[in-house]
Amino acid sequence: xxxxxxxxxxxxxxxxxxxxxxxxxxxxxxxxxxxxxxxxxxxxxxxxxxxxxxxxxxxxxxxxxxxxxxxxxxxxxxxxxxxxxxxxxxxxxxxxxxxxxxxxxxxxxxxxxxxxxxxxxxxxxxxxxxxxxxxxxxxxxxxxxxxxxxxxxxxxxxxxxxxxxxxxxxxxxxxxxxxxxxxxxxxxxxxxxxxxxxxxxxxxxxxxxxxxxxxxxxxxxxxxxxxxxxxxxxxxxxxxxxxxxxx
Length: 247
Description:
The chain is α/β, with parallel strands linked by helices.
């Protein structure tokens, strides 16, 4: 793995919520199974997983701002690096990069997308999720220290401008408003304790449910994202030369 000194282009603004838990929970099993079926010519990197990685821990690389999360991932065989700046990897090192619920926390999201394109090999796979539609901004976005909700067309444009060809998207709908307000209230009361609680109780059950009942059904990017979409997942491939500087 080549490590290079590059200027900082990304900064994740959320405080570390993981200190209260040591339990690593593999989440999104439906996307992990889908990823295993794809052609991935190189190692996998996941950005910002905390203690809830999607990529297989023992065979993947992880970048996160939380030293605590990186320690726990490394104990299970993950190869880790701090994520408080540009990605500390050589150009074209990875076959796939995952970034679930990350871009909305990053001041310079376009800089991060450029870094992702840089470390991916031509034809490399990019899989990400983020909340969308500015009109859906809520107290939970504030509690989670989000810095934006992109409109879907704007998000697709940012990804395409970095040399990616979007293959498809899927989404989840908004939850009940009372539940959103409750989640925000609990997070604001004690973020570390709330994270430890759901890490031990909710996410293991949720991941087990998804393993048996959740299926990935992609929609063509040519089909407009509906207004009811709250959280968007998309996959894309880096075109040949897509990560090169235009100059």
